[in-house]
Design goal:
The chain has a 4-stranded antiparallel sheet, covered by helices on one side. The chain is α+β, with helices and mostly antiparallel strands and about 280 residues long. The chain is built from 9 helices and 4 strands; from the N terminus they run αααααααββαββα. The longest helix is centred in the middle third of the chain and has 30 residues.
Length: about 280
């Protein structure tokens, strides 16, 4: 739902920007208000997408991609204000306006920036999972190497963005993680203070931070452990395998289809299978 609202808002903003640039071809009075509007739209858009600002790995690239259409709109407005008043100049300016509108409409820089952040987070989780599996393979019964400190683990650094004061899960630490499937990752989260229950992790805020549906986030207890740890599952759980249908069930289904049309009201009590004698064939 939130993604649809953002997409429609981006479309409306693109149309408004194209209208503003078209008006700038006719009058210079729209230059100053247009510059203010472009800067304001960029600031409001970034404020409404906190994941872009919080992403440490690709923050500069994501912010640049998101703000590119706003900067382009401002540059075209200035060019319209300073360009000479000739037919050729107006034709070039009109082409720049059309190019800006088409590029912004089809490339959707806001969505590209969000995809960059989401891909960066997924890559960090995948790298953390692979590192954990490699560490387990290197361990032996005779000599076990100590596990790496949490601050050096990529998944722990990613969780640190949530555990800061004012974040989604303050007062927590990431103890372990495991990839259940390509679309599902399980985390064991503990309290940062020993002997204190794990603070509540609000699913709605976590859903907004990760930009995934709330129903794909589960928070619950760890089997056999106390309230000092909790289990967090993010993503779509794999569906359980369906058991094979028994032969008797297959016979009952077949008979039900026959009874529905040819012999209504007749119920199958028992079914036996015989090998037909050769003389009867």
């Amino acid at each position: 739902m939130l993604a649809r609202v953002r997409a429609k808002t981006g479309r409306v903003a693109t149309l408004a920007g194209a209208g503003l640039l078209t008006g700038g071809l006719l009058t210079d009075a729209l230059c100053a208000p247009g510059l203010v509007a472009a800067a304001t739209a960029a600031g409001i858009g970034l404020a409404a997408n906190p994941r872009i600002l919080r992403s440490s790995a690709v923050r500069a690239v994501a912010v640049s991609v998101y703000a590119a259409p706003h900067a382009g709109c401002a540059a075209i407005l200035l060019a319209e204000r300073l360009a000479p008043d000739t037919a050729v100049s107006h034709l070039v300016q009109a082409g720049a306006v059309a190019l800006w509108g088409c590029a912004t409409w089809y490339l959707r820089p806001g969505q590209l920036a969000a995809d960059l952040v989401a891909e960066s987070v997924a890559q960090e989780i995948a790298e953390a999972t692979k590192a954990g599996q490699d560490d387990q393979a290197e361990e032996t019964e005779e000599t076990a190497e100590p596990a790496p400190a949490l601050p050096e683990d990529p998944a722990a650094r990613w969780w640190a963005d949530l555990a800061v004061d004012g974040g989604v899960a303050p007062g927590t630490v990431l103890l372990d993680h495991q990839r259940v499937s390509e679309e599902c990752v399980a985390f064991i989260v503990g309290s940062a203070e020993r002997g204190v229950p794990v603070p509540e992790i609000p699913r709605r805020r976590l859903s907004a931070f990760l930009d995934i549906p709330e129903e794909h986030i589960e928070v619950g207890p760890v089997p056999g452990r106390g309230t000092g740890v909790c289990l967090l599952v993010i993503g779509r759980r794999p569906a359980p395998e369906q058991p094979e249908q028994h032969e008797a069930d297959s016979d009952a289904v077949t008979w039900a289809e026959i009874a529905a049309t040819a012999m209504p009201g007749v119920e199958l009590i028992e079914a036996n299978t015989y090998d037909m004698r050769k003389e009867l064939t």
